[in-house]
Amino acid sequence: MTQKEKLVLVGNGMAGVNAVEHLLKLAPDKYEVTIFGSEPHPNYNRILLSYVLSGESNVEDIVIHPYEWYRNNHITLYTNQTVTAINTSAQTVTSDKGVTVPYDKLILATGSNPFMIPMPGADKEGVMAYRTIRDCEIMMESAKKYKKAVVIGGGLLGLEAARGFLNLGMKVDVVHISDAIMDRQLDRTASKMLQAALEEQGINFLLAKQSAEIVGHKRVTGLKFKDGTMTDADLVVMAVGIRPNVELAKNSGVACNPGIIVNDYMQTSVPNVYAVGECAMHRGVAYGLVAPLYEQGAVLAKHLAGVETGPYEGSVLYTKLKVSGVDVFSGGKFVDEEGTKAIRIHDEFTGVYKKVVIKDNKIVGAVLFGDTSDGTRLMQMIREETDISGMAKTAILTDSASGGGAVSGVAEMKDDAIICGCNGVTKGTICSAIKEQGLTSVEEVKNCTTASRSCGGCKPLVSDLLAYTLGSSYDKNAVKESICSCTEHTRDEVVEAIREKGLSHVREVMSVLGWKNEEGCSKCRPALNYYLGMVSPETYKDDSTSRFVNERMHANIQKDGTYSVVPRIYGGVTNPTELKRIAEVAEQFNVPTVKFTGGQRLDLLGVKKEDLTAMWEALDMPSGYAYGKALRTVKTCVGDTFCRFGTGDSMAVGIELEKRFERLNTPAKVKLAVSGCPRNCAESGIKDLGIVSVDGGWELYAGGNGGVKVRVGDLLTTVKTEQDIIEYTEAYLQYYRETGKYGERTSEWVHRLGIEHIRAVVENDEERKQLCTRIDQALAVTKDPWKQAIDSKKIQRDLYEVVELT
């Protein structure tokens, strides 16, 4: 029996273990493998740390290779041990726990260290990096005690950390030295679109700011900038870049500058010592993205297995991922330069932006925002330097939108085309798994190959590959989508179980349906709370702990820790008495800013938390629900009361609608508008439901959205009377309440169900009557939350009294 060679891997991260996994497939009996990892965990997906931070996943969910994998492949694993010395003459490594292991081949995959800005105060308590599971645990523990986080760094890691803090109920500022976020991965247009999307989610940006000093006594209390301004902070996270971790290599005589210098087969300057991943410096470049590191590992694995392979000649960098739910892609040289020309598509209605940069009749770079389905095809054209001189330039970005284009697009890809950049999964691997394992859904492909397991941005391509491989037997619409990673159950299954089993509170649902994470997460807990209230409005007691901070406080938290108070002003119509009262209250509580909102209301900004209930009592007006997943506003024009073009009394209709549906809980926020004529001054075409007066009646438009992804509403129906408007609105909103996914705006809901289907439901007399009855039941039990807080000392004590932290 041939003696196995001894292979030692220093570093239990994604790049090194992926190389070993490839090697075991190519030469399963050639090496006896030992792996050292500094962290007390098996190999996990660092890209998914933000999901752990936000509570959407636990540590077990992001493990790539569980302990069983090491045992099944006869790998000796030393976790929580750091290799501190390499004897390159004796060919041994020694750990900080005194373990010494000999090697015939040694792979250094020591990764990188987060860069900490050397500024005054950087050593204070509450200042940290964001790199490991332990970092996540510290940040989650801090969120239980503190309220304000500042993330320095507007790159991918910083944005993901900020999103995690939001989900933990913290306010968060993102500080970036440039005036555009993710400026290394996106052009200015895409960057500003991403910023707008993230601001809508609640992240506050402080751009073109250079950090100067972290202030505070023992613990951080704020961050001061070089322009003299500052922002408060209970926690400061630095996400400003990484440096190759080369101390071990340097001390062992391995050449570094600044990373570990390797050749095209990942060999270092020392015989039998290799390097791969973020610690390696290849042709003057150290890569920090996963796909290039996997490409390096594939070449190294073939070399160590003795399999013929071409050299690693570097990677064309690209990024394809979801940033806080927003699809983005960039690849190659996407910045406009002399000698280049660009093709652009910028659809502000759907929030889609696409750009390809062309030089000498070849695509050299691309940026995609909102729709990244063209990304893999474009990267193939960039890598292969495809001559596009014979192609219609306008077709380069529209293939996937044409009939059958998506499937034909993946058909043209080579088997080695990377589909999942996060996990380095190729088209060939996915297609083989579909055929050999009988896979029929994206979820099954994910579990089998890890494709789409990380950011999920490649799910559409995986779906296209299923359609390409399975043909007509693939039912794209049959793909099961669970409400979050805590459960395999879909939204419909959860709602059905609540109804059939009579489930009555959040923890009961999770227990009965076998939640994997018994505490739930920030995605499923608010959803379950909504579904329970929707199913049983008359008996369910709302679980305020399962609501986001704004809904729990019944006021929008601002970036400086104060709150906004927005009283209800029905239809945007007020009177001198109300205005005078608002003005007097603003003076009484020293409100620094009073602003008219886009929904024709007055926003009192800068209110201290401890003043909220007293201020609500002094106003003696109902909550405007500016913070809630509920009816926000009904915007109106002056209608035929004053306008010479008006054909309908838009103000009266708007007031009646707002009084009818205020405090109605919905899957996402809802905005209505009523226009007194087709001139549409109230912008009814881009509201969740817009009403427009026309000759002989009223037109109702459904599913509009004026946010980041602008969508013009579809004509739902035409009615004759103002009472008809109320009735059809009742049916429409109740059907949305009963069939919408939690967090799904009507624009997405209408697109998913189809306007024809929704129209058929609300125009059916019997179904409409039943929907109206059920919404009556839901509305009959609503109460004004401001009044409840005013009348309850317990609510005031629990939510609004300021407790000094020691």
TrEMBL record:
> Any idea where the BFD-like [2Fe-2S]-binding domain is?
418-467, 483-532
Pfam families, per the entry: Fer2_BFD, NIR_SIR, NIR_SIR_ferr, Pyr_redox_2, Rubredoxin_C
Q: What PROSITE patterns would the database entry show?
A: NIR_SIR
Q: Which domain of life is it from?
A: Bacteria
Q: Give the signal sequence positions.
A: none
Metabolic or biological pathway: Nitrogen metabolism; nitrate reduction (assimilation)
Necessary cofactors: [2Fe-2S] cluster; [4Fe-4S] cluster; FAD; siroheme
Family annotation (PANTHER family) = NITRITE REDUCTASE (NADH) LARGE SUBUNIT
Recorded protein name is Nitrite reductase large subunit NirB
Quote the gene name from the UniProt entry: nirB
